[in-house]
Amino acid sequence: MSTRELILLSPYRLPTQNALYLADDDVATFLHGYRALWHPAALTGAAGPPRPASPYDHEQPKPGFLYAVPQSPPLLLPDDWDQRVRAAGAVAFRATPDAAVTLANLRNALREDSCTPPDARALLDLDDERTTPFFGVGLAFLCLEALFEAMNHENQLSSTEFWNAVEQAVTSLAGSDADAPRRHLQEAAERLKSAREILYPVAVHLVDMWLPEASRTHEPWPLALDRGSPLNVIACASLLESWQRAQPERFAVLRERVAANLVEICGGPYRESEDALLPLESQLWNLIRGQATYQHLLGSDVRVFARKRFGHHHFMPLLLQNVGITRAALVAFDESVVPGGRGTTASWSSPDGKQVESFCRTPLPADSPQTFFHLTHHLHRTIMQDSAATLAFLHRSKPAHACYADLLALSRLAPVFGQWTTLSSYLETVNPGEYLSAGTPDDFHGDYLVERCPSTAEGEVAANAVRTPVSDPVSGFAHRLRVRRQLDTAWSLAALYRSMGGRVAGEETLAELEDRFESERGADKEIAATLNTIATALAGRLCARGAPGQSGFLVLNPCAFNRRVTLELNDARLPQSGPVKVSQIEGDNARAVVEVPAFGFAYVPRSGGSASAAAAPRMRLADERTVRNEFFEAEIDLASGGLKAIRDVRTRVGRLGQQLVFNPGSTMRVREVKVSSSGPALGEILVDGTLVDSQDEVLATYRQRFRAWLGRPTLELRIEIQPTRAPQGYPWHSYYACRFAWRDDRLTLMRGMLGTSYSTSHTRPETPDFLELRHGRQSTAIFPGGLPFHQRNGSRMLDVILIPEGETATVFEIGIALDREYPMQTALGLATPAPVVPIDRGPPHVGATGWLFHLDAPDLMLTTLRPAADGADAVIARLLECGFGGGAAQLRCVRNPKRAYLVDGRGQMLSDLGVEADGVNLDIPRNELAQVRIEFG
Question: Is pLDDT at 615 greater than 60 in this prediction?
């Protein structure tokens, strides 16, 4: 009987119940040394499986033994230990952090040893295809021994039969039956599986995930694709499009694997954009366009939603259900934060009650040796804690560790440690282990600001963070919001035209422009031109029966609520009558506030007003330090140039103050304060000054414009900053900002998310919509105009970040309003244009004002009204309940509809709605997203 033994000299053992914190090199040398001992040439003539042993037990090497000596960490062995090895007739080789180098060291050591038998020498040059199954069996044997220890169970593996099968597999390598080694190894693997089933007799699930890089699709695929093992590819639709264009042959192979259910594409969005901070319409476009693209490229829809880049929020289950996706991977693949369950699966709910089944287990990096060194620990933990034992692995740009190939080879022999599966199959098999509540926006957080800024400060950016530096890291969101609202306005005006029985020129280009804009291929000018074309056509239709020769303007309102629209027109003298609530004539120019009905119009004559007729203002709207109207009074600090206080006219208590700051420190200094308009329509103060540091060096020059319009509840603040010292470094620490401060610690800070206010305690509460300070029935709202990044300073200050490193914009617009019951209406009104169309014939025949659609529920946010895409005499309204109320409502139309019904995001019918005369009856629950198709013809 042979006495030769295979020994890995190491003071460590595989972790079992607790993790072991070692350096990557220490872990890698342990794995590679043990792995090399399972090479068939090393196994030839061995008395038993390789085993780790303490270096102290082998200070005097034993004859015939084969030692693997880890290079890291250095072992405490005698200085002449290598000479003792040769003198004893033993063999030793060095294990390194590189698997290939370790195997090469083994081969060289066995070749140089004169005692190596010829049959072992013949196996030294076996290829990876024949040796990897041995390595897989060896990894399973080592992990299974540790698993019995972790479970405090006696080892039930039949060691003799197992080792006999391994010996026969080694012996049969020299035989003529090429399949014999696999059969014997399969027998050994089955014995390992039987022993594992004593500990855990039900299925273990293995989930393999891959995050391909758009720029690296030419690099080798994960081995699972070549070995026929199920793989989950997490890729957005645009990445697949670029893949198909650049490498059609490889993409064809991928499509074949998808059709054979060996690969599952997990995704959903068309682009990996910053959806959590984008308007609802942009988010829905991303999902709907993504599903259409997946269907075109792969012939099937995506069944599991997943993103490489953060884009989750608590409304996501609602949006996914709307486009037909019922499963998701609720996992953060970057440094973002998402709520996860304690188990592997959960039922994830949105505020309206919609649910998606979610995979919640953070995958283990397949390229890390730590993953496989702790494999037993992870397996023990999932067996003990999860309803369905699950191990998940993640592939990024780095090649997988050598033990990953061993694990795949083992799975082809027997599912010792589980069966590989796709996410959809897994979620079909495993019931949700818990239920996640809808939560709040604070439960989700990503760091888009760091991603978008070019900062390279050491230690501030994680290695796996998504880096997409841009020239407008902050202002890009505000610009995108304004252009998106222009596009939504064009859609809404086209739908109003369709509702009157026509089809407007320019409507046919809107879908293409939307695709270009959302794909970031540039369409800003074309969208503005198309909006002007559609608005002109609609105004012409409305005034077709008006009196000719009556020059004026038609103001259009694309929103579902009444608006006070401000006009600043050249060569016009607007009379103060009808919809014009106040007019200010300055020479041949006019400034006015016009009230326009929801989804309606207001006609304003071009002439008829005079400066003398408007000379009796109701109040003085501006003086040397204050702008005011009937809603608020805003006092300017003459020393700093900031907002000293904004007060309501009833209590006259200061609600909020404002300054410009440079973080980490600055002081505002005024150069000039000028009243540029004092009424009767507009009160305006211009402030010029500088920001200086503690050494009185100028950091930036600034101009602030404060505006108060009579009849409008919003203080308009326009900020211009020209930095002389650009911010550098980590963007959350170095920036120019608009700092707001309040004096009452009892105020609750709220942030808007898809129209609804949520209490926030987050230090960096991101929102592009609005922020609210509430105390009882009193509220003060800040409207950042699409600027999404905010940072709290203590308990009574908040910075709206304007210019971090890399930002090129210098002009920003912010609004402040008091006691707004539905602040999202104000936020939409500030961002949505109200087209003003010059016309040459009198008011519409129905009068100077009128509406085409009317919604009687202010808690319903109508984000867009669109003509039906199929060309029918129909429109589609998209509504989101954002008041935590819900209930019955009615949408009245310009014509009596024949039919109305609910549809999903893909246009599929859900249920009929009642129609009474010109009204469509709605019953929308709280926080529900509803899409209503209204047919006329």
Answer: no
Where does residue 374 fall: left (phi above 0), alpha (psi -120 to 50 degrees), or beta otherwise?
alpha
Q: Does 334 have pLDDT greater than 50? A: yes
Domain CATH code at residue 740: 2.70.98.30
3-class DSSP assignment, residue 780: strand
Residue 609: per-residue pLDDT: 64
Phi, psi values for residue 97, rounded to 5°: -65, -5
Chain Cα centroid distance, residue 73: 41
State the virtual CA torsion across 419, 423, 428, 432 in degrees, nearest 10.
Answer: 100
Starting at the edge strand found earlier in the chain, the sheet holding 849-851 runs 836-841, 548-556, 600-605, 849-851
Q: How many CB atoms sit inside 10 A of residue 505's CB? A: 14
Distance of CA 827 to the CA centre of its chain: 23
For residue 799, give the amino acid letter. Answer: D
DSSP string, 218-239: TSPPPHHHHHT--EEEE--HHH
Note whether residue 455 is domain-resident: no
Q: Which residues contact 252 (CB under 8 A, 6 or more apart)?
A: none
> Tokens 């082998």 map to which residue?
58
Range in 333-342, 347-356, 688-697 with the lowest mean pLDDT = 333-342
Q: Is the dihedral of CA 431, 434, 438, 441 positive or negative?
A: negative
* 508 plus 425 within the same structural domain: no
* pLDDT at residue 750 in the model: 96
* Residue 184 and residue 296 in one domain: no
Say if CB 715 and CB 689 are below 8 A apart.
no
Range of the domain at 131: 6-199
Tokens 């030419």 belong to which residue? 218
1 is a domain residue: no
**What DSSP element (H or E) covers 209?**
strand 205-210
Residues 669 and 758 in one domain: yes
Please, which residues have CB within 8 angstroms of residue 131's CB and are 6 or more apart in sequence? 39, 40
Q: Tell whether 595 and 679 lie within a shared domain.
A: no
Torsion, Cα of 333, 334, 338, 339 (10° steps):
60
Q: In terms of pTM, does the model score above 0.90?
A: yes
* Co-location of 143 and 251 in the same domain: no
Question: Which residues contact residue 551 at a Cβ distance below 8 angstroms, ignoring those fewer than 6 apart?
Answer: 605, 606, 607, 838, 839, 840
pLDDT for 616 equals 55
Of 608, 637, 657, at which residue does a domain stop? Answer: 608
Average pLDDT score over the chain: 92
The reply to whether 325 and 413 lie within a common domain is: yes
Q: Measured between alpha carbons, how far is 858 from 822 in angstroms, rounded to an integer?
A: 8
Question: Which of 831, 864, 895 is at the close of a domain?
Answer: 831
Average pLDDT over residues 263-274: 95
Of 914, 864, 866, which Cα lies nearest the Cα of 890?
A: 914
Q: How far apart are CA 684 and CA 677, in angstroms?
A: 5
DSSP SS3 for 376: helix
Inside any domain, residue 459 = no
The answer to whether residue 618 sits within a structural domain is: no
Calculated CA dihedral for residues 250, 252, 256, 258, nearest 10 degrees: 80
Instruction: Supply the pLDDT for residue 574.
Output: 86
Q: Indicate the burial class of 884 (C-beta count within 10 angstroms; 0-12, 13-18, 19 or more).
A: exposed
Distance CA 752, CA 783 (A): 10
Looking at the fold, whether 238 and 102 belong to one and the same domain comes out as no
Strands 263-266 and 231-234: parallel
Q: Residue 817 gets which letter from DSSP?
A: E
CA count, 13 A, side-chain hemisphere, 708: 28
Q: Is the pLDDT of residue 214 over 80?
A: no
Q: Residue 362, class by beta-carbon neighbours within 10 Å (0-12 exposed, 13-18 middle, 19+ buried)?
A: exposed
Look at the chain and report how many structural domains it folds into.
6
Strands 205-210 and 231-234, bridge-based pairing? parallel
Shared-domain flag, residues 166 and 211: no
